[in-house]
Amino acid sequence: MNKTQKVLAAFLVLIILFTGAVLSRIWLFKPQSAVQLVKLPAGEYNIETWGKNYPLYYESYQKNLETAPSPTGYGGGINIQKSERQPELFVNFKGNPFSKDYTEDRGHQYAMHDLRESKRIGPAAKGACVTCKTPYLEQFYQEMGWGYASRPLNELMDRAKDHPINCANCHDPETMGLRVINPAFIEAMQRRGIDVSKASREEMRSYVCGQCHSEYYFEPGTFKVIFPWDKGLTPQEMYEYYSGKPNGFEYDFLQTDSKVPVLKAQHPDYEEWQNGVHGKFGVSCADCHMPYMRKNGQKYSSHWMTSPLKTLNESCSPCHTQGQELLFNQVKAYQDNTWQLQHMAGENVARAHEAIQKASQIPNVNQTELANARELLRRAQWYWDYMAASNSMGFHNPVQGLNTLGQSIDLSHQAVNAANKAAGTNSL
């Protein structure tokens, strides 16, 4: 064998070795084209059973047990009392259990535990409170219809066996298709002319979140859960809806000092997103909060429902190419500005409660002006609380959010002026 032949032979050996290595790698880490569908029985609510059949999803879902602060310092998964940072809550929610216990939300696995431990829940609490805490909602509604809402909460929690929010809230166990089990969401969408059963998969990737991350109220007497969307999903449109005293509902509580009939906002995240740039451009909740991941060649949707800032590459980079540092700083800027105005709005609402209380104690106070002051403050507190109760600290819709807080601050000042006018004084 001459020199040329030896070189060619050596080159051929290298090619064979390289090809073998590539083929071996492909064989060992062969991508799975799809998750193998396993049909589970209807009514299977045990998370471990689901986890045995869908291990990657289960593994990521278990990360929701982690408790950590948010990357930007707003929200996060540590259940500290919000009043530690916002002492104005003691005034604004005086006369309501939120003044006693208002912690940051934790991951879905803590839903039932935190409900049981909440100081806002007493022996008289109704079953409506379990609506978004467990997949057993499906069973309760099948058995009792809306009658479950007026049952004792403790009774339903005992039946739910501490199975918190899990796969069955959002997936049909037999087909794994996305589904909505909250009848309040289904009914609210029907009133808006939307049939949830005909929704596309991409729409369902937001509907499954919206069925719980939304504003609601309890119908007086029945405790039926109702979403206030008949006039629209902006804070202004929802306030207009509430002003009509729908189904006999007038307010959530009377503030003890000012006697303002307060509307308590309940995490209107879906509404914020719906009217924000991501919602308007068709980016679903899951696109950002449950991004696609890969492990051993298998693609799956992360079920670690957390801040997209913890998964910036997977959550944001598919659409944004500006770089992770710039994206993070932009989000933090939105949230810093929102927090500044939110805190300011909350403090102004508290001052307005105090001004109205003082005015109401003056003999011969102008009752017409005092009623006007209370109405102005009722709206101001709703706008502030709409933002304070949301989980994104303004990011879901920064333009609407800052405008809403600006209106709250202005309305609080108007309420103070009206209280002063009612009392016949320039300052209180």
UniProtKB/TrEMBL annotation:
<dbReference type="GO" id="GO:0046872">
    <property type="term" value="F:metal ion binding"/>
</dbReference>
<dbReference type="Pfam" id="PF02335">
    <property type="entry name" value="Cytochrom_C552"/>
</dbReference>
<dbReference type="InterPro" id="IPR003321">
    <property type="entry name" value="Cyt_c552"/>
</dbReference>
<keyword id="KW-0479">Metal-binding</keyword>
<dbReference type="GO" id="GO:0042279">
    <property type="term" value="F:nitrite reductase (cytochrome, ammonia-forming) activity"/>
</dbReference>
<protein>
    <recommendedName>
        <fullName>nitrite reductase (cytochrome; ammonia-forming)</fullName>
        <ecNumber>1.7.2.2</ecNumber>
    </recommendedName>
</protein>
<dbReference type="InterPro" id="IPR036280">
    <property type="entry name" value="Multihaem_cyt_sf"/>
</dbReference>
<dbReference type="GO" id="GO:0020037">
    <property type="term" value="F:heme binding"/>
</dbReference>
<keyword id="KW-0732">Signal</keyword>
<keyword id="KW-0349">Heme</keyword>
<dbReference type="GO" id="GO:0030288">
    <property type="term" value="C:outer membrane-bounded periplasmic space"/>
</dbReference>
<dbReference type="GO" id="GO:0019645">
    <property type="term" value="P:anaerobic electron transport chain"/>
</dbReference>
<keyword id="KW-0408">Iron</keyword>
<keyword id="KW-0106">Calcium</keyword>
<comment type="similarity">
    <text>Belongs to the cytochrome c-552 family.</text>
</comment>
<keyword id="KW-0560">Oxidoreductase</keyword>
